[in-house]
Specification:
Helix content: under 10%
Shape: flat
Largest sheet: 13 strands, mixed
Order of helices and strands: HEEEHEEEEEEEEEEEEEEEHEE
């Protein structure tokens, strides 16, 4: 997931009205030293899906990465939309063509120039030793190994249309590197606490984590839903509902359409918050089913624990000790988070409404 620190600084600079060379800020960061940024996520339901990312921050003045060129040769004439990345218009109902648009060569700000698959591999640190240990005994629970294609995410492939978002329904998969389990010693217990241990040539970093139980899909009486597939009528307003334990205060919902035995089609992916709270403290979430056409869908609800959720949704500085629970041997805060995340799948079949034409 595209959470590299340098991108934020770059976006802020590109948002300025006056175009300035980032090299003009070199004196401001002359003494800056790159540091690690870590995301260590335990999946207690399927520990083999656990992942640890170890990246290095860079200066916003580092033009060796953001060099304004198409380094991997995938720019096309369809991407020739100028520095704002948007197709210019001449009818007065959107931004006009800007600098570089239509000049026949790749320019900074255009699609496929300084894109994720050019930048991310250069931020990864693949030299660390990564382990999950039981906090009380120090016994190893999971050994991790570097994988240059540890995970992936989807991005729109093409320029933006003025006022209408992505100008294409084509998406590309971007992979990024990280550490995946190579050996697991026993099962993860929800009654125990664990700790990620990340050792590099320069630092020894630890991050505690408590396993989080996955959400439970429920019926109207808030009892566990025991059917494999929910059947509802299109346009009925029926809901799919779930509950999560008190430490899971936010959700992520992925909806995919089942188009074949082993084939899924992406529909929507979005953050979601609780709609209520049960008497025992569990959070209740829900999604509306009537937005989708008839067919079979797979709903995946993923919940992060409170610390991991705060990492994404809080406005606290990333170095704030209330946000990051990673520490080096001197007790210094390390950028990032050690957290737990769990997911549950529910299939939903939407039937055609007999009253519909």
């Amino acid at each position: 997931m595209n959470r590299a620190l340098p991108l934020l600084g770059l976006i802020l600079l590109l948002g300025c009205q006056e175009q300035l060379s980032i090299a003009e800020f070199e004196d401001e960061f002359r003494d800056y030293r790159t540091e690690l940024r870590i995301e260590a996520i335990l999946d207690p339901v399927n520990p083999w899906n656990s992942i640890v990312r170890v990246d290095r921050t860079i200066l916003i003045t580092d033009t060796t990465l953001f060099n304004g060129r198409d380094d991997d040769g995938d720019w096309t004439l369809a991407d020739d939309v100028g520095a704002d990345g948007i197709v210019g218009v001449t009818d007065g109902f959107g931004p006009p063509p800007d600098e570089g648009e239509g000049n026949g060569r790749p320019d900074p700000g255009e699609p496929h120039v300084d894109e994720y698959d050019e930048i991310l591999p250069q931020l990864h640190d693949s030299t660390a030793t990564v382990t999950l240990v039981e906090l009380e005994t120090g016994a190893p629970v999971i050994d991790f190994v570097w994988n240059p294609q540890a995970d992936s995410f989807l991005v729109a492939d093409g320029p933006l249309e003025a006022g209408f978002g992505p100008g294409t329904d084509k998406f590309v998969m971007v992979t990024y590197g990280g550490y995946h389990p190579v050996a697991i010693y026993g099962t993860i217990s929800y009654d125990k606490r664990y700790e990620f241990l990340i050792i590099t040539d320069e630092q020894r970093i630890t991050g505690p984590v408590e396993p989080l139980r996955p959400p439970t899909f429920i019926d109207d009486l808030e009892s566990p839903l025991l059917v494999d597939t929910i059947e509802v009528t299109a346009g009925s307003g029926d809901l799919v509902r779930w509950r999560t334990e008190p430490d899971a205060t936010v959700f992520w919902v992925l909806v995919e359409k089942v188009v074949g035995p082993d084939s899924l089609e992406f529909v929507v992916s979005s953050p979601n918050g609780p709609t209520g709270q049960a008497q025992d403290g569990d959070w209740i979430g829900e999604g509306v089913l009537s937005f989708f056409f008839p067919g079979l869908y797979r709903w995946t609800v993923t919940v992060p624990n409170r610390a991991y959720g705060a990492y994404f949704y809080s406005n606290l500085p990333m170095r704030d000790e209330q946000l990051s629970n990673l520490r080096d041997d001197d007790g210094n805060v390390v950028l990032g988070i050690a957290g737990s995340s769990a997911a549950k799948v529910q299939y939903v079949r939407i039937l055609k409404n007999p009253d519909s034409p």
